[in-house]
Prior knowledge:
Layout: H1 3-17, H2 22-42, H3 52-57, H4 71-83, H5 94-108
Helix pairs in contact: 1-2, 1-5, 2-5
Amino acid sequence: MTITELKRSIVLNAQRFQPAEDWEAEVIEWNTILDIFEYALANGFQSTDYDLRALLDADDDDSPGVPEMGCEAALIDLMERIERTDLPNAIDAPEIAELFRFFELQFRGPA
Length: 111
């Protein structure tokens, strides 16, 4: 998937997200986050703290390679550390940070 295709997917998912019921909106949002991480992994992003491939392929929190905190918590931790460069353990991944900012803008609107 190219960055253009990913951004188009984010926009379309955001349009589906707005009128969706709570449970469906949560699924759309989470699948979009996973798509961003899949793109990141396919384009060379790696974490020294987590096995991103294991997190993305996990069936549940007991799957091999998943940290004790679980998949969702680990991915949220990565997201925050990519987006927030002010954190002491921030991750320098500007292209991925821009995708998460784009995601937030599409799903939630301007801050």
